[in-house]
Design a protein that fits this description.
Length: about 375
């Protein structure tokens, strides 16, 4: 017996149930994106794969949106904006407008420098693709320590390692990474003479802020594998509001007992420097990997210009506990840290999975296209000559 026949026999009207089950669909616009994954039955190049993320859904759509937003902030120039008539003579100059780009602040937590994202961040700084950096103490010291000794992966990349056993063996664990304690001993031997010299120069009138100390460390390390080396070389400021929250802080603490005059580091100078740089920006954007102090410090600097124009967050934080780390861009809009109508996205994912793909599809893609064009033009010039 059919359902309808059974319902009729029981005297039940099924029309209301059918209406609930089969609500008529509204026709979606022709431009609506259809969900469709990549077809691996045909050869795929990386760019085709990345393009397909826009149609996969869930966090893949977030990845695609992150690529879109970064490309917009990366490519923006003041010359893209119409003249209003209120510009100064310099601001109206076409050459000035063509070279004035978006002020891009990159934020990341220390664990990401411990990971292989360090090399990707170094690429961005080496080629001046970001304007400034804000990170945590580990984001400073781990970059320097890697110049003195390697970081290793645990066996099979397992997070299940005995802390007590590692402690006996002088091995420190960061997730599924291992840092030999000897690396920190090497770091202490390297950094102490520099701290000595900073104190000497302080006595001669030098004033130190976290970013100035970091710049000095970048110059002293003299190692092209270092993010801080390239930041110092390219005059890209690196801000670290919690500079003492790590091994470097331990070194500064111990050093303070060895010196008649302890090293003084002025954090007020840096907050003035960071906030003022954001206030002056014609256009401002940020890419923040992880959360915590670097995320909040960057966003707070944009408050003084009524918010940033672009933002990309990549982290695994959730907002149910009210944490700033887990907060979505819309919360920052409520504070005036991002502008209403700004281009924003939060990708809920581990940055080590997502950020290499994002950079491959944006800065790296543009970088290698320019390299290829340069070679082609150079070859053409040589041929014509």
């Amino acid at each position: 017996m059919t359902v309808d026949a059974e319902a009729l026999k029981s005297g039940i009207d099924t029309s209301a149930a059918q209406a609930a089950l089969f609500v008529s669909s509204e026709k979606l616009p022709d431009e609506a994106v259809r969900i469709q994954g990549p077809d691996f039955n045909r050869p795929f190049e990386l760019q085709q794969l990345l393009d397909s993320y826009a149609r996969i859904g869930f966090q893949a759509a977030g990845l695609s949106r992150a690529i879109e937003v970064i490309d917009k902030m990366r490519a923006w120039r003041l010359s893209d904006e119409p003249l209003t008539g209120d510009e100064s003579e310099e601001e109206a100059d076409p050459a000035y407008r063509a070279r004035t780009s978006c002020h891009i602040l990159l934020g990341y937590t220390s664990n990401l420098i411990s990971s292989g994202l360090r090399e990707i961040i170094r690429f961005l700084v080496q080629h001046k693709y970001v304007t400034g950096i804000c990170t945590t103490a580990g984001g400073i010291e781990e970059d320097l320590i890697k110049c003195l000794g390697p970081t290793y992966l645990t066996p099979q990349g397992s997070f299940d390692q005995s802390g007590a056993d590692l402690r006996k063996r002088g091995l420190n664990r960061i997730g599924n990474l291992i840092v030999p304690n000897d690396n920190y001993c090497k770091f202490e031997d390297w950094v102490n003479p520099i701290l000595d010299q900073l104190v000497v120069e302080q006595g001669q009138g030098a004033k130190w802020s976290p970013s100035k100390v970091i710049e000095r460390l970048g110059r002293e390390i003299d190692d092209e594998s270092s993010v801080l080396y390239w930041a110092a070389k390219n005059n890209i400021p690196v801000f670290c509001p919690a500079l003492t929250d790590g091994s470097l802080g331990d070194m500064i603490f111990c050093h303070s007992f060895k010196s008649d005059t302890p090293l003084v580091i002025d954090i007020v100078e840096d907050i003035r420097r960071l906030n003022y740089s954001s206030m002056r920006a014609k256009k401002a954007g940020t890419v923040i990997l992880g959360g915590g102090v670097c995320k909040h410090q960057i966003l707070n600097s944009f408050l003084y210009r009524n918010g940033a124009d672009y933002s990309v967050y990549i982290n695994t934080g959730q907002e149910f506990d009210g944490s700033d780390s887990g907060a979505r861009p819309d919360e920052a809009i409520s504070w005036g840290k991002l502008r209403a109508g700004s281009e924003t996205v939060k990708v809920f994912a581990d940055a080590t999975l997502i950020f290499p793909l994002v950079v491959a599809a944006t800065w790296a893609k543009s970088h290698w296209q320019k390299q290829a064009e340069s070679k082609t033009n150079g070859h053409t010039t040589q041929s014509s000559a």
